[in-house]
């Protein structure tokens, strides 16, 4: 991005994080200033660099944190200050997003800008509801209009007489609050009252809900369902295709709200696995990883790693911190020498392999006790071992290896500290909307979650990745509903699927 000052008008897509464009992600990652609306995917904010200034300007229905003219002035001001500014807008900035107005203001002020299109909910919403907006059997034309304008006012820029006669599919956005007036205007202007119509709320997210009816019935159906915005509406024969191709709402974890308490850096693997299965994932990290207090001591142990017979890694975090420090000191991987490498589980082993090193020992049970059991089958007496660990780790591995006659040095690679930031609003979301399940992947995530003082949601259960985590939950009088049989992320995901299959 340019450092002379530029504004990127970026479409954030309709809600599903996977529908954000690569260009949008690149812009967000490099932004100096992020000016954003009420987003369906608050995780987008996690892509920003630490120094990025994040400014929420609201803009949802009648709730505007900042009026449009002030938003225009803000993005001009920040860009003229030499910043790379991202104006992040839901859907596509040019489809009822006022992106054209903002671009005109930037142009008038002489500010360089770029428009980054996004996938609009006008097409993505129906697709995720199993409704193709075009179909050879139904139509060859698509009309998109805004339902934000009141059709009962004295004048209108929307020609409902023309719309009612227009063939093909009609899609409108922002019209739930005026649904009865809009459908009545269609019928009054000659549209068939039996024309199918569907509304999809929170489209492309795990909160997605779809209702169906006709122009004559949909308003009553929406009232009965207490259906509210944000929603996209589709009018036309294509709605009948939904009974055949409704795919998104049939995924095994659809409708389940699951909280992930891992660090922001680690949450991705579990979050993606659950989202792919249809879950509404709330990332609420309770811990974050920081450098060890003894930076010099850590660096010295890493640079002397070649002197050891074994390197023992008990977590992916330790692996990452160790090898980042190693390659900061050495350019050649052969500088590590020939120690054998042990990993406490598949997740840790996978991280080691990412650095192109083989793993010599993985225990059958992915816990510290399992690693000691595995080493009992080796002859480790008088062998030197470097145990790469967190400052707060239990002493099971060190004590167990020493009892087997090994000479063990502890290499503290990182500290686990409480996560203090909540810029996505996950804690407030949990308090307001509750959850079906809260996942815990370590004893530290348990301790720091309960230290937050959040009320446990009604009807919610806990999930544990393994016995150490389970014991931590029991200490807080919250025994887990289940524990993963295999103590890693794939094992936890499988256990979650099994639980909800038995408890739909």
What does this structure look like?
The chain is elongated and about 90 Å long. The chain has 4 domains: 114 residues, Tetrapyrrole methylase, N-terminal domain (Cobalt-precorrin-4 Transmethylase, domain 1), CATH 3.40.1010.10; 128 residues, Methyltransferase, Cobalt-precorrin-4 Transmethylase, Domain 2 (2-Layer Sandwich); 114 residues, Rossmann fold (3-Layer(aba) Sandwich); 128 residues, Rossmann fold. It has 18 helices and 20 strands. By secondary structure, it is α/β, with parallel strands linked by helices. The model has no long low-confidence stretch (mean pLDDT 91). The longest helix is centred in the middle third of the chain and has 14 residues. α11 runs parallel beside α12, α13 packs parallel to α14 and α16 packs parallel to α17.
List the uncertain runs: none
**What is the fourth-level CATH superfamily of the largest domain?**
Tetrapyrrole methylase, C-terminal domain
How is the largest sheet built, in terms of strand order?
Answer: 3-2-4-1-5
Rg on CA atoms, Å: 27 Å
The major β-sheet equals: 5 strands, parallel
Overall geometry comes to elongated
Instruction: Work out the number of β strands.
Output: 20
Number of helices: 18
Pairing-aware structural class of the strands and helices? alpha/beta
Q: What percent of the residues sit in helical stretches (DSSP H or I)? A: 25-40%
Ends apart, CA distance between termini: 48 Å
Task: Indicate the proportion of strand residues.
Answer: 15-25%
* CATH 2nd-level architecture of the largest domain: 2-Layer Sandwich
Q: Which fold name fills CATH's third level, the topology of the largest domain?
A: Methyltransferase, Cobalt-precorrin-4 Transmethylase, Domain 2
- Could you report the average pLDDT, rounded to the nearest whole number? 91
CATH level 1 class label of the largest domain? Alpha Beta
- Count the domains: 4
